[in-house]
Amino acid sequence: MNITTNFGAPMRNSVRLAGMILCAATLAFTATACGGNTEAAKDNASSQETHREASRGQAITAVDPWIKAAGAGDTHAMTAAFMTLKNSTDDPVELVSATVEGAELIELHETVADDHGATIMRKVDGGFEIPAQGERILEPGGEHIMLMELSADFVAGDVVDITLGFASGEELVVPATVREFSGAQEEYAHEETAKQGEHGHEDHDSDH
Questions:
Q1: Which residue in 185, 29, 164 sits closest to 84, CA to CA?
Q2: How far apart, in whole angstroms, are the C-alpha atoms of residue 41 and residue 69?
Q3: For residue range 9-48, what is the model confidence (pLDDT) as tens digits?
Q4: How far apart are CA 189 and CA 193, in angstroms?
């Protein structure tokens, strides 16, 4: 009996010691695993944020941006920029401004017919809304970005940066190619009776 009792005590101590070692090892593994998960979570969050930033950068894209060739010394010294703006987000985005080096005054314009049937180019109040998951086309004879008071020539073949400004405060720099455009030979004559920001077109095809 004594032998059994004396033998049993060391065994219990060994089991207890083994249990403590196992517990400590388990705690160490858990701490390491948690630390690894934390680092993995941080890496994953960073990756997701980078993806979101990249997505925001690609949210608005300009397809086929171009500017009609014109010279600073031309009559009225005006020209226009055109493109298709695509919005890949789930919210509408509003274009409110644009800047181009070589044009001192830039406005967002629409082309409409007045009460007499004449084509009128009119400044837009507010901006151009690009619908969620949609697009807005800026084209000759329609909505466009009007470049006025030119201080530089826009020569066919040149590439000119257009900085688009949105209501959110974000900007998008768009490289636009300057092109000759035969449909843009109309006169840009300011009408004394027109509203401020409106210009009359003397032509009949309403192209810019």
A1: 164
A2: 53
A3: 444 444 444 455 444 444 444 444 444 555 555 555 554 4
A4: 12
Region of 126 (left: φ > 0; alpha: ψ -120 to 50; beta: rest) is left
Single-letter amino acid, residue 199? H
What sign has the CA pseudo-torsion 145, 146, 152, 158?
Answer: positive
| Cα torsion angle, 96, 101, 103, 104, sign | positive
Q: What is the CA radius of gyration of the chain?
A: 34
